[in-house]
Amino acid sequence: MKPVELKKDIHWVGAVDWNIRDFHGYSTKEGSTYNSYLIMDEKITLFDGVKKGFTSDLFHRIHKIVEPEKIDYLVVNHVEPDHSGGLPEIIARIKPEKVFCSPMGKKALLAHYNEAKDWPLEVVKTGESLKLGRHTVQFVETRMLHWPDSMFSYIPEAKLLISNDAFGLHWATSERFDDQVDTAHLMEHAAKYYANILLLYSPLVQKVLAKVNELGLEIDMIAPDHGLIWRGDPGRIIKAYDSWSKQECRAKGLVIYDTMWHSTEKMAKAVAEGLVNQGLSVRLMNLKNTHRSDVMTELLDAKVLVFGSPTLNNNILPTVADFLTYAKGLKPTDRLAGAFGSYGWSGEAVKQITGYLEDMKLQMPEPGVKVQYVPGHDSLAKCVELGEKLGKAAIESGLPDCTPLESSC
């Protein structure tokens, strides 16, 4: 695959990882990319590296533009190993005059790589700039978006924002730009990325968006470190991040469960029926066959979350515990929640699910429903009622006029 020119003298020279299927617990079933960018100027500058094992791809593409040894500067926007893992090899070969990073970036590089003590590290902060010749690089620190070291590099002459992990997505494609692929599929990947990586940092996302607005950055292209480059309508992903970081929800409910002998599954269907009766769009998500990261993606714009599990050995099923632990770490807020489950003799599952939901500070307007052995008509009616009450509470909460996430809700 050849390098791709984004703007005059600015090129994508990254790597495509067609085979990665897991990104620390996040299912990347369509692969990913490790994007790196090269600016040809009086000072030739490379922005970000690639994951260890992909440096040959990087050098191959750079070689089609310039000898790698002629690169003057390296900018490290983010130190996570999927971008910095190849740095020891890259720096050893190109021997840059300077390696620019944020203050926390320098600490992270020194902590990750023994060789970094000998690298020509130069710290840059928000408001500082670097003149390359015809191009200027303006730096904006974006701490905890999603690592302490993260920063943006903005090229005002090109109206280009190199955004590290922000505005990214995991999707391996032969295309490089957002306007070359199916928009709905693109936004699904972008939503999944936000839900599983950045949801926790939503308050900081709001601050970064405000900072970009305050600085008056004119942006007509966003080049993230993963996935497609936003050139067709970069405002689409900025608008989506604004909505997702405000945790805006629509009239949608998720019934998230696992089951042993189908009793809890019957209850799940009854809860879903109650939600539908109140006009909510509903997804039933069986954790036995749905990956946690796909459930988190659906959760991104769902107002109601109802969890179900039978009791197994005085506990909830491992799949349900796994998802609740995962979701708790990502901190969804301002949702309505409920619990249900079947049991044989001890019946702790509903109480344990409730404990998770309380720890997550989700609103639980109704007590959970638990049923011994197989639910009958009366028990299922209680499940329908639970769904109806949660659905009614969601509608009465005043949901914003918000379209589904795949349309940039």
From TrEMBL:
<dbReference type="InterPro" id="IPR045761">
    <property type="entry name" value="ODP_dom"/>
</dbReference>
<dbReference type="GO" id="GO:0009055">
    <property type="term" value="F:electron transfer activity"/>
</dbReference>
<comment type="similarity">
    <text>In the N-terminal section; belongs to the zinc metallo-hydrolase group 3 family.</text>
</comment>
<dbReference type="InterPro" id="IPR008254">
    <property type="entry name" value="Flavodoxin/NO_synth"/>
</dbReference>
<dbReference type="GO" id="GO:0016491">
    <property type="term" value="F:oxidoreductase activity"/>
</dbReference>
<dbReference type="InterPro" id="IPR029039">
    <property type="entry name" value="Flavoprotein-like_sf"/>
</dbReference>
<dbReference type="GO" id="GO:0046872">
    <property type="term" value="F:metal ion binding"/>
</dbReference>
<dbReference type="InterPro" id="IPR016440">
    <property type="entry name" value="Rubredoxin-O_OxRdtase"/>
</dbReference>
<dbReference type="Pfam" id="PF19583">
    <property type="entry name" value="ODP"/>
</dbReference>
<protein>
    <submittedName>
        <fullName>Lactamase</fullName>
    </submittedName>
</protein>
<dbReference type="InterPro" id="IPR001279">
    <property type="entry name" value="Metallo-B-lactamas"/>
</dbReference>
<dbReference type="InterPro" id="IPR036866">
    <property type="entry name" value="RibonucZ/Hydroxyglut_hydro"/>
</dbReference>
<dbReference type="Pfam" id="PF00258">
    <property type="entry name" value="Flavodoxin_1"/>
</dbReference>
<dbReference type="GO" id="GO:0010181">
    <property type="term" value="F:FMN binding"/>
</dbReference>
<feature type="domain" description="Flavodoxin-like">
    <location>
        <begin position="253"/>
        <end position="391"/>
    </location>
</feature>
